[in-house]
Amino acid sequence: MNILKDQNLAKYSSMGLGGDAKYLSEIKNLEDIEEAVSFAEEHDLKTIMIGGGNNLIFSDKGYDGLVMINDIKGISDLGDNTFKVGAGEDWDEFVKFTVDKNLSGIECLSKIPGKMGSAPIQNIGAYGQEIKDTLTEVEVFNTEENKVEIIKNYESEFSYRNSIFKKNIGKYLILTITVKLNTEYIKPPLYESLQKYMDENNISDYSPASIRRAVISVRMAKLPDPKEIKNCGSFFINPIISEELQQEIIREYPDMPNWKQENGYKISAAWLLDKCGFKDFHYDNGMATWKNQPLVVVNEHAKTTSDLLEFRDILTDSVKNKFGIELKMEPVLI
Ligand code: EPU
User: Fold this and answer.
1) Residue 6 region, left (φ>0) first, then alpha (ψ -120 to 50), else beta?
2) Could you tell me if 160 and 82 lie in one domain?
3) Which end of the chain lies in a sparser environment, N or C, as judged by fewer CB atoms within 10 Å?
4) Are residues 239 and 305 in the same domain?
């Protein structure tokens, strides 16, 4: 295993920004992790593991420790539509693999960029599916106890864009994840924008392959391709607000999208940004919001993470002033 010194991190984040890692190493298996962790202990370094870098932002200071790039490969068929997958496998290639077997469960999560191991961290979700609905367990290396552990679904503290893995960044290095898929197709009505696409195009086939095609079309129309435009997908989490505030805003904006939750009302961060005039908004430091989905912040030609954070503050301050709502960043800032 190679441990490289002073590596720039910008190319490891899809936002394309950030300083240097003191050390960096590619991880292919458990032995590599054990070697890297003991190197870090000897040199008194903190460690972090990253996947495709699609949901993290490195600070300009970089990382004063050892960054491990997850490249653990392999898919094992455990029978009963259950697969154990290396955390370094590409997420969408695995989605395609299951769709090709006519299995349902993650077809709505088609074309989400990133690697398998990142999926449980923020409990990825789109068009009504979340990884928590099919994931059975996660195999991790616990860096506090230096041992391999199995964390079951019910122990993962999954909620909207959150999990035990996100709450304890650095503690659990993800080795494999196991998912159990279904032979039954999903049934309408689907998530609003997806159903609309199905109806408008007269699609009545709800097979995984058909849904995958539809999701890819909807995503392509709305979201930038991270291979072409630097971005981290949704940059803010949809906020949950009190009934009182929801009522207050609805009085002025009766068309505000909102969804009742156990603990209040989830509202659309995209809508809030749109109402503040931030759709297709280009700032002179090289940051912008995407033309078809203002929730996606894109890096057109910014040079530093400070540029990005300055831009973030312009957006959040404006939403705070107009609506009294504090938007929270979705990507993890390291
Ligand atoms: N909207 C606007 N203006 C716009 C775009 C959207 O007002 O320009 C409003 C519309 O009212 C729309 C609402 O925003 O009904 C919601 O938009 P959308 O269906 O695109 O969903 P979202 O809540 O903005 C979430 C996820 C996405 C996921 C989509 C589809 C979060 C933070 N984001 O976005 O996830 O693809 O739903 O399920 O939950 C990601 O996490 O990177 C991501 C792209």
Assistant:
1) left
2) yes
3) N
4) yes
